[in-house]
Amino acid sequence: MNVKKVAPLGHRVFVKVGEQETRTEGGVFLPIAAQKRSTQGEIVDAGTAKTLKKGDRIVYSKYAGTDVELQSEEFVLLKEDDVIGLVGGDDIAQLHPCQDRLLIRMEEAQTRTSGGLLLSEGAQEKPTIGTVVAAGPGRARDEEEAPSPPAVQPGAKVLYSKYSGTEFDGRDGRKYIVIREADILAVLS
């Protein structure tokens, strides 16, 4: 099949996939099985998307979209709703969440039991408490309505659902998660 252009329909975007990590930060080459698939890219065609435009650098879920190879380059076709947020650089802490999503700095996992025993990384309980770093503009209920801003604002300490969202490692060594506002269980004070 000789395709030269892809024009997304509906509220979909066509994204040039970012570079895949082939080395560690220390410069060691990673085998193909250990390489992480990139979940960042640049929008090549925004179709009829309402909140995204051509040239935006985005982050999306690793399970979202349809992969497309075009002229020996990797692309992904995504629903506008699958875009997690906009990024300006390499630091996930600077992410601007889309729609009703929230960027949360996760609390550190407990590394010791109450009796003082060290826990292996696999035995550590995944934290479900964090601090909201950034909030998206909100989600509109229908096409005609303006989005209503999230009730949870940056700075709030929250409890969220255990298996929600997409996790990221920040350049500051901290862990972050992007979740939808509906996955917030409580605001803590």
UniProtKB/TrEMBL annotation:
Keywords: Chaperone. GO terms for molecular function: ATP binding; metal ion binding; protein folding chaperone; protein-folding chaperone binding; unfolded protein binding. This is 20 kDa chaperonin, chloroplastic. The keyword NAD does not apply. One of its GO terms (cellular component) is chloroplast. It holds the Pfam family Cpn10. Residues 137-156 are annotated as: Disordered. Belongs to the GroES chaperonin family. CDD domains: cpn10 (cd00320). The keyword Chaperone applies. PANTHER family: 10 KDA HEAT SHOCK PROTEIN (PTHR10772), 20 KDA CHAPERONIN, CHLOROPLASTIC (PTHR10772:SF63).
